[in-house]
Amino acid sequence: MARGRTIGQDGGAAATILVALAGFAYLLIAPSTLSDGDTGWHLATGRWILAHGRVPTTDPFSYTAPGHPWVAHEWLSEIAMYAAWRAAGWSGLIVLTATAFAGMLAIVGWHARRWLSAGGVAVALALLAMVLMPALLARPHVLALPLLAAWIVVLLRAREADRAPPLGWAALMLVWANAHGSFMFGLALVAAFALDALVTAAPDRRRAAVVHWGAFGALSGLAALATPGGVHGFLYPLYVGSLALLPYIQEWHPVDVGRLDTFQIAVAASLFVLLVRPTRIAPIRLVLLLGTLHLALAHVRQVSVFVLLATLVLAEPIGRAWTDGSLPRSRGPRRGTRSLAAIALAIALVLATARLVVPATRADSEGVPDTALRHLPASLKSRRVFNEYSFGGPLILAGVRPFIDGRSDMYGDAFSIDYFRMVSGDWDRWRAADRRWRFGWTMLAPADPLVRHLDAEPAWRRLYADEVAVMHVRR
User: Which helix (H) or strand (E) covers residue 470, if one does?
Assistant: First the structure.
């Protein structure tokens, strides 16, 4: 980037607008957006909150844990999801998810354009979007992506100005803590950037750095405590990370490094750019990136956090390494950029309207057995079901109390691990559970080993089967 490339340069702004619009348009038609079973219980939670005028503090959905302590810590996202779904069906939920994704891309691109050329911004956003695609499901974590991006930008801009963020930005943490559990990472980022400020400050400014960053961190921590869960909600992310059942859940699996995917492509491309020309990264930021990379490799669900953080943090050092190292000058967006933004907004509104006018339907998928549920006799809905873990959300949304669902943190290690052993074919364990709960029917995935036992058991018969679900009923 030559000295003439400045903040608000039309090329980088145009790239940001076009990639954000493309991401929005793609997500409106992406077949996988509605393919997660947990979407069902999130919608049901939003419906419950609006119907009762409060956030639940005990389990209102299952028959195995009624009254068990459970606080809907993502209640703000769940209300937004249910409101969109109630107003415009699955199309409304898709538009909400696409808007959050496009908003995140816009925030990232608007920051990166200060350091990267138009092509650099386009490539960075494209890699970011490709890595995030598998995680772009209609769930609260997608609605939290713009919050995470904005929070990182606020911290980066504060460090660039050699000051702490204005205290008013702590209000963003208040929203974030009530929308998704990733807020804890936001607090960790405050600590990391505060340490960076302290280490690099002149001796006579270190006390001021401690006071100002400490005040912002304390206020952000208080905002994170202002949730229905209080202290328990504040510690919830740490509790989830300590559960022994995590290896049984796909999104908590480590990254499969033996399979080439967009994440590995993005990491390789970033290493190429960083190594071709000497790139200087502040030590504390490098430690932060390496620590987050470790989390991403250990748990697939953390990949989104790492790639978003890396895109924003590396924009400046990469821009400096590939140019004369000059700082960008502040300048507002040009008229051409404003015109392009207006056109893109108009196109987005037309696309969203088209999506709402043509109602979307949710197709069957690995966690969504909608066709099977349509074949469920009404007489069975009130009887106890033993279900596949990922089917719990659709069952709850359909008004059926499940044996288990995606809220495994509520069910706890002992119950959940016992369940996973049963569904994996531990017939004796399952028969003991059947004696306790007296199941009336089952809904499992065809690949579940327990299906073969039920097929061979005279007391049970197949009621329905397709590529997604197999239902048995007691004779």
Answer: strand 470-474
Residue 87 lies inside a defined structural domain of this protein? no
Exposed, middle or buried by CB within 10 Å (0-12, 13-18, 19+), for 264?
Answer: middle
Q: Is the pLDDT of residue 4 over 80?
A: no
Name residue, tokens 């503090």.
Answer: 57
Does residue 10 belong to any structural domain of this protein? no
Domain residues for the domain of 419 are: 370-474
How does residue 65 score in pLDDT terms, banded at 50, 70 and 90?
very high
CA neighbor of 439 nearest in space, from 404, 394, 398: 404
Residue 31 pLDDT: 83
d(CA 443, CA 310): 42
Predicted model pTM = 0.93
| DSSP symbols for 346-372 | HHHHHHHHHHHHS---PPPBTTB-HHH
d(CA 389, CA 393): 9
Residue 339 tokens, joined: 């015109």
Indicate the number of domains in the chain. 1
pLDDT of 313 over the 60 cut: yes
Amino acid at 289: L
**H/E element, 471:** strand 470-474
Note the Cα 95 to chain centre separation in Å: 16
Q: How many CB atoms lie within 10 A of CB 107?
A: 23
The answer to the question of residue 411 being in a domain is yes
- Three-state SS sequence of 204-217: HHHHHHHHHHHHHH
Contacts of 189 (CB under 8 A, 6+ apart): 151, 152, 155, 288, 309
Number of residues in the chain:
475
Both tokens of 380, joined, read 């069975």
